Amino acid sequence: MSFAKDAREEVLNNLSESECCKLAELSAIIHSAGEISLSKDKFNVVIKTDMEGVFYVVNDTLKRLYGEYAEIVLDEDVNISKAVRYIITLPDSCSREVLFDCGLVRRAGDGALEIINGIDEHIVESECCALSYIKGVFITSSTASIVIYEDDENRKFSGYHLEFVFDNEYFADDFSALLFKRGINSKKSRRKKLFVLYIKEAEQVSDLLASVGAFKSVLKLQNEITLRQVRNDINRQNNCFNANVTKTVNASIKQVQAINKIKGTIGLQKLPENLRELAEIRLKHPDESLETLTKFVKGSTKSGLNHKFRQIIKVAEEIK
Questions:
Q1: 66: buried, middle or exposed (CB in 10 Å: 19+, 13-18, 0-12)?
Q2: Which residue range forms the structural domain that includes residue 254?
């Protein structure tokens, strides 16, 4: 199972039992994953989801608040990912009442019924209901590209991208504001006819998971963040080490070439004694670093040897 689906399953098992919160959850589920249609003065409400547990949440709320039961069938239309999807249908006998109670339908000024595009502020008026509403949207509309590996074999690092997909911009904006009030910043983009709220910062994703009660997923994500930071630090250290090795090798090659040029033309005996001694040591130890060479030249330092090598290279460059 993917990290995203694990998190959604965890939230499904951590929903509120109070009636007002269950109504907020039902409102969020219908608003984010439902389809509402009016036929012969009756409302038809269906919910499409890939989480079977959503059916039990919806059914439990209907049973407790309305004494009714929903129906569930498998969606016969196979989507691109070939994932199993369920169609949950609310009973006609209570659909109208449910939609009014959930703040999804209201009467316009002329008495006609109209669907509310945004989030009814009364449904999320209390803090507990607002949190339950976020949970309802999370279990039906959230997806994530986060991949948590159980082992290091063939390990590849993904980004920390979590998003919510809606077909209604008013709803997307209201939900973004609901998250913002809880310190979670989301950005909006358009994908054809859909509106996407996305979060890409690891700590923000972690805060969202914690707020909806997906604490096991938070631990997994924090472990992944720590592992990536450690690996990044190791990679930086290795890159720095490799760069230093390359720098040392290149400097040594240049020094040896200069010394051999002097040796093959005017001869090393033309060099001052201190430079001649260093040149002979370098020819004996062509692969060693300056730090190692200081052990062969008494009273020397890296900067001192570096200065002397520059003098040797300058002599070689002046030879025609």
A1: middle
A2: 246-318
